[in-house]
Amino acid sequence: MGRTKWVSFEPSQGGYLLTIHLADVTPPALSQGNVRLDPPTRYLISASLQGRVANWDLTTVTSPQGVALTLTLNLTNFADRDSLYEAMTDPAAGAVLIVRRALDIVAPTSAGGQTSYARAAAALDTALPFTFSKDLDANVFARLGGSSPAAAPGWSTSAINWNGRRYVYFQSPNQPTQIYFLPDSFKVGRQEDRPRRPALAVTTQGTDVGSVVMTLSYLAAPVWDPRRIADAGPALQQALGLDAPPNLALFQATSAALFLNLPGDDPAAGNSLVEQKGALIDLAAGVQGSVTLGLTQFRDVYGALFDERSPLLLGEVRVKVGDDVTAIPFTARISDMNDEILAISSSVDVHNNIMTATLANAIESPIHVESLTGGIVRGNQPIRSTIVTTNPSLPTDLKPAGADPHIDPAAALTATLSPSTTQQVAQSVGGIIGGLLGGGSNVGQQAIGALGGLASQLLDASCAPQFDLSHVTAVPDPKATWRAMMQDQIVGPVSRSVTLKFVAAMLAKPSSAPAAAPPSQDAVMAVQVVFDNGQTVTFDGSQTADAAGFINQTMKMSVPVETFVLGTGPTDGYKYRTDVVTGAGIKQGTWTTDNRDTLFIVPN
Fold it and tell me: Alpha helices, DSSP H only, in 464-575?
């Protein structure tokens, strides 16, 4: 057998061919006694070219003897050839060969307080970095030609105004008909399970009120208006002098940074735009990150999720392409998320030619439906139709969704839709049948033609509703949102230490003599301090006083984190009463409110 060239990039029939041979380097010790999995696998090369993520999918082919796996990539034009050459030879491109395996796993889920397990799909990536030297590895590219392909030129930018806002588009000179765009914004989204909880999570560290820190994790998805992209095609054709509207695709930039408005450590200093260096930014997959704050700061940030006027937790993703920097708005607001808040289902009554659609609240907060417009589509083609009735009538409010998959009637509305010409269809079908049965040939032909035109207005199972939801809004409930976010999480309470001091001389001394006279009816045998959260502290004569004559006890008062975050109860104070135990019985004191860390107990 001849020697195998492990990597080659060379001309082929009608283009260029990259061939990669791989060997199996699995340690023998790992192979013995273990079952080998062969899941569906995708192979691709990924690199950064002029600030954009470039991906090439590879194809598996039959391998020669001595080779475990052979991958190939066919390219048909010079632009793709030059881009791949740059990716393979420029260290700044950071090229990697990615082996992406698709696996089925069993993952735990929680519903109604019960843990169960469900099958889920997962992708496992193995990244193999590589770079070839143009000189030392020249044999890899030997047949490409006498001179190496030139590095791709930089991007040209064009700005197009749409709906009063300026948007930047990117064009590579070697691919003038391929234009790239950036998202309109990034918005925190919702999870898919019902109720569709915000893609937010909270964890805490520490328990003491003065030192506890809270971390808010978030996932924001890219959002863009498809109408903006559709309108950009003709505008760019004219601006760039192209023969036809260009193809548009999302620009997956590799240089991006997230800046968020966050409260400073000093409340008097106000808020500031802070770079989130730990955030993971993928312009196609979204922005994933977290902010860690003290308890007071976190409370302000959580409140901003429901406050349209607060600047907190708003910011921008700054994308740098060459010398151009574009700021893309970042939004984290419960009322403005990128996912649907309604679950819509429908059925068709073929006999009566009507559609019934159910619009159910799919989130944890109420939904207000001010008005609703819509129609019926078959495929992507609209049918001339209208909403006939809604139940309940509009405007209306839909109560929050629950975890139960069964829809609560109070959490949904029903809309009946019908083709605009339903009555005409019924009348015409009768006339057509009559024409076919009793009319002449001309009448029959006219009837057949009319039946063909009316067929598009007759509903079937392939039809679906399409609604304008611009007047449907969430009414965010901070408490319901918090509890939805914390459904699968447990955080401990926040505590503070309170020292209670009582004058020992006020207590009757217990006597060890068996014949000692009983204390008087007025003698104080014990004092019990009762707090409204159920905690109690007891002082009696058996306890030892300090040099100053005080009996001291320290207790930890616990307050649920929810109380701090939502402000649903006192957090910096407490309520207590002092009960006095005498020979005559127990005398309850009156409730008193205080907030001191050291509390001197004086019976009422």
Answer: 478-485, 561-566
